[in-house]
Amino acid sequence: MIRLYDFHLSGNAHKIRNLLSLLGVEHELVDVDLGGGEHRQPAFLERNPFGQVPVLVDGEIVVRDSSAILVYLARKFGRGTWLPVDAEGEARVQEWLATASTNVAEGPARAWIIALFDAPGDADEVRDRARDTLAIFDAHLADRDFLAADRPTIADIANHSYIAMAPAVGVTLEDFPNVRAWIERLEKLPGFVAVPLPPESI
Length: 202
Description:
The protein starts with a strand and ends in a 15-residue tail after the last helix. It has helices at 11-23, 42-45, 66-77, 87-101, 103-106, 108-117, 123-140, 154-165, 177-187, and strands at residues 2-6, 27-31, 55-58, 61-64. With 202 residues, the protein is an alpha+beta fold. It folds into two domains: 2-77, Glutaredoxin, CATH 3.40.30.10; 87-187, Glutathione S-transferase Yfyf (Class Pi), Chain A, domain 2, CATH 1.20.1050.10. It has a four-stranded mixed beta sheet with strand order 2-1-3-4, with helices on one face.
């Protein structure tokens, strides 16, 4: 059975839990105690030397990095639905996977990490960066329902988590109606997994 090394407040891990649910793939969640430093122990570092979740183990295959895991699952179980097989279609998805790993990671995701884990960084600057990124998403979604195709793909799954989580850490979506509509469309998909909520103290 597939095992997912997980942390419940990680948006990157949420992406994988979400796709596994949407695909109906049976799996086992293995909670990694980040607070206790389990991700820095030799047993975990053998799976991911960068000491990060998520990590997916499928038999002898170990895949780290959320975007790589999304591609793996989409190719293995998605039958071309979640990751197009034509050159342009896959390129469009890859563009948005890169966006999730750069602009979204440096904006909404960083705001989440600063707020929840007291990570270093200027929270106001990061929230401004997040709003700049959201403006680009909102313009892109003005005349389309999904990011990379006329149906949901892993491009949407890769970017949804930290954007949907952003209001909980002070990045409102009030000025981005197209982003809000996109989130609502995704969250109505059968099997969609809700994003984690932060502690009430945040």
